[in-house]
Amino acid sequence: MKCSKCKEDKEASNFAKNKAKSRGHDYVCKQCRNKNIEELKTKVRLDERVKEKFCIQCEETKQAVFFTNDSRIRGGLCRMCKDCKNSAGSRATWINLKIELEQIYQPFERKAAHAKSS
């Protein structure tokens, strides 16, 4: 089998099994896959991260320790600080609860209004 990354011919045991692929193995050998994983891990390290960040919620610049980690975002830190994220989460919970309660009590209000008009 030939690795699609390093273009070397290798035995099937050097490729991870993958039933989704037509040949039953990955197209990239285990060594190339492991190198790629290591490169991705070293891409964003703590010492390379930003020291300060701007919070989009409270619009303040704070030290990096006030932000949660998020590997999906450039710089590795969340867009909102921990305080804003926590308060936004609790607000979202109350808003969802309010919507649920309105959906529960709305039919009763309609029946009461219909009964008054009859």
Annotation, overall tally of beta strands: 6
Strand sequence of the main sheet, in spatial order? 1-2
The biggest beta sheet reads: 2 strands, antiparallel
State the helical fraction.
Answer: 40-55%
What is the rounded Rg? 27 Å
Q: Extract low-pLDDT stretches.
A: none
**Protein structure class:** alpha+beta
List key phrases describing it.
alpha+beta, flat, 2 domains, 42% helix, two-stranded antiparallel sheet, single chain, 2 helices
Q: How would you summarize the topology of this molecule?
A:
Layout (H helix, E strand, L loop, with lengths): L14 E3 L7 E5 H14 L8 E3 L6 E3 L3 E3 L7 E5 H36 L1
Antiparallel strand pairs: 1-2, 3-4, 5-6
Would you kindly provide a written description of the structure presented here, covering whatever features stand out?
With 118 residues, the protein is of the alpha+beta class. It folds into 2 domains: 1-43, no CATH class; 50-118, no CATH class. The chain contains 2 helices and 6 strands. It has helices spanning 30-43, 82-117; strands at 15-17, 25-29, 52-54, 61-63, 67-69, 77-81. A hairpin with a 6-residue loop joins strand 3 (52-54) and strand 4. The longest helix is centred in the last third of the chain and has 36 residues, at 82-117.
